[in-house]
């Protein structure tokens, strides 16, 4: 088992602490975090510079993610270019957010948008496979995302046979779904994991995510919130999962401290899966 973290958290930690990026990267690497999760927008100015920076820090790219709009703009070429960039940076997986559908959309528009998304994901999955990458979809925490529940994800998995699942531990609660029940439905296709915990306690300086039932969900170091992280890790062990687990806590008031605490908890808890 290896641990990654969102590159966004590292950049945010630089802003919060005033420390230079190479120094924060060194601290994060010292916490036992070996890789990053990269937003395509973060690397667009210069993939070469990002690659060099990470190599100097002794870190790799676990996965890249990108926001697309295939429902309205079904041209898949930007998605294929995204895969090229991910391959150049050495990522083994890409996470695609294929688009959103407004709540006012009628059934015809919704069906057409879903088919466009599925078609793009199929072509991207074929292309990625030729380059040794896996295209994934996650349970995205937005009511406009037609892939925010396990049942919605299962529809895409049926439509796109080569699609993998990035299992985000903390996003099912957004739609009021039990994460463990969702795990059982999706476990055969899980290839990547975002370890996101949530706190129900208000944290000064942090903005909550408001779930569809009005629950205020604050960031949390992994293992310190309301998500059944231990039970999820136990189930990952049961299915023999030994891939990357990614620390995620966007909007944390102290990213550096959260990253350290999350890494320590994962190392202590997930040791049975060490390879």
Automatic annotation (TrEMBL):
Q: Give start and end of each Xylose isomerase-like TIM barrel domain.
A: 27-268
* Range of residues in the leader sequence: none
Instruction: Mention one GO molecular function.
Output: isomerase activity
Task: Kindly give the InterPro entries that the UniProt entry links to this protein.
Answer: IolE/XylAMocC-like (IPR050312), Xyl_isomerase-like_sf (IPR036237), Xyl_isomerase-like_TIM-brl (IPR013022)
In its keyword annotation, does this UniProt entry include Kinase? no
Keyword Disulfide bond in the entry? The reply is no
What keywords would UniProt list here? Isomerase
Listed name of the protein: 2-keto-myo-inositol dehydratase
């Amino acid at each position: 088992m290896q641990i990654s973290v969102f590159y966004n958290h590292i950049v945010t930690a630089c802003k919060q602490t005033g420390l230079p990026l190479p120094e924060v990267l060194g601290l994060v690497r010292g916490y036992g975090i070996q890789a990053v999760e990269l937003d395509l927008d973060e690397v667009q100015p210069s993939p070469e510079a990002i690659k060099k920076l990470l190599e100097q820090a002794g870190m790799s790219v676990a996965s890249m993610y990108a926001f697309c709009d295939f429902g309205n703009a079904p041209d898949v070429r930007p998605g294929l270019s995204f895969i090229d960039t991910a391959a150049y940076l050495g990522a083994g997986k890409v996470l695609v957010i294929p688009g959103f559908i407004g709540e006012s959309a009628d059934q015809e528009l919704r069906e057409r948008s879903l088919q466009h998304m599925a078609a793009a994901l199929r072509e991207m999955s074929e292309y990625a496979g030729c380059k040794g990458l896996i295209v994934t979809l996650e349970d995205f925490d937005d009511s406009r995302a037609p892939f925010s529940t396990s049942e919605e994800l299962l529809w895409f998995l049926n439509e796109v046979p080569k699609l993998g699942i990035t299992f985000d531990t903390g996003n099912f609660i957004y739609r009021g779904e039990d994460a463990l029940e969702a795990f059982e439905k999706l476990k055969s296709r899980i290839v990547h994991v975002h370890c996101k915990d949530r706190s129900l306690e208000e944290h000064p300086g942090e903005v909550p995510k408001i779930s569809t039932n009005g629950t205020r969900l604050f960031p949390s170091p992994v293992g310190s919130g309301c998500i059944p992280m231990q039970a999820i890790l136990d189930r990952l062990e049961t299915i023999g999962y030994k891939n990357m687990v990614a620390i995620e806590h966007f909007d944390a008031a102290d990213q550096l401290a959260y990253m350290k605490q999350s890494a320590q908890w994962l190392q202590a808890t997930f040791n049975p899966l060490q390879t």
